[in-house]
Design a protein that fits this description.
By secondary structure, the protein is an alpha+beta fold. It has helices at about 40-60, 65-75, 75-85, 90-100, 110-125, 160-180, 185-200, and strands at about 5-10, 15, 20-25, 30-35, 140-145, 150-155, 155-160, 210. A hairpin with a 4-residue loop joins strand 2 (about 15) and strand 3 (about 20-25).
């Protein structure tokens, strides 16, 4: 008897590993794909972003956890730039270049740079936003209030309005999903980044994926 292991690649996609084959399955309609199928890669990518990041981030906001929600999606700004370019640059340039595209009104007085150092690096290195030096007296506020602009920088205070911030990043990803469906150059760059990590992990998916819970089939809604 052949031993199989089922790995959850994303909320709705599984990977069946055996000595003979690797099969990707969409559990919503039981559609199966070969391991290296290009359509499957874009579907899994979108399902991961929406199901593991944006859906939980919005649920956190609904329960008034603004800090956690902003923390969850901030690294995706840098990630999106890497997928757009097809390769990684420096973390600062990748983050700030994409932040300028997402937050088009945030262009004055070093606001994007402060967003990088104060929010991206604060979360990454300290688990919390960090202000600038005491000499500059810049501060960061994360707010649950509604506002037309997701970020406002004035009087040396960077205010992130959590819901429009999350939704703006989500919108940028949704536009990217559509772009790689129709733009072959954009799709090739996406595949460059995706394939690099995908191929490295062919035999070690446990390091980047979730094991299927024992009750997955009977409680699928909990995991999607």
């Amino acid at each position: 008897m052949t031993s199989e292991r089922i790995i959850q690649l994303s909320p709705n996609f599984t990977l069946t590993l055996s000595l003979r084959e690797k099969r990707i399955k969409d559990t919503r309609n039981n559609q199966e794909y070969d391991f290296d199928n290009e359509i499957a890669s874009t579907l899994v990518f979108q399902d991961r972003m929406q199901g593991w990041f944006f859906k939980p981030a919005l649920e956190l906001l609904n329960n008034n956890y603004a800090m956690a929600s902003v923390h969850l999606v901030t690294p995706l700004i840098e990630a999106l730039e890497i997928y757009h370019k097809g390769e990684a640059g420096s973390s600062k340039s990748d983050f700030t270049n994409q932040a300028k595209q997402i937050f088009t009104s945030l262009s004055k007085n070093g606001a994007i740079t402060f967003l990088y150092h104060g929010v991206r690096c604060g979360f990454a290195h300290k688990g919390f936003p960090q202000g600038a030096s005491s000499a500059e007296q810049r501060n960061i506020v994360i707010s649950l209030k509604q506002n037309n602009d997701p970020i406002v920088f004035e009087s040396n205070c960077l205010t992130i309005y959590a819901r429009p911030y999350v939704e703006s990043i989500q919108k940028a990803f949704e536009e990217f999903y559509e772009k790689i469906k129709t733009d072959s150059e954009a799709r090739d760059k996406f595949r460059n980044v995706w394939s690099l990590h995908w191929n490295m992990k062919k035999n070690s998916f446990g390091h980047i994926s979730e094991d299927i819970p024992d009750d997955f089939k009977t409680n699928h809604d909990r995991y999607s």
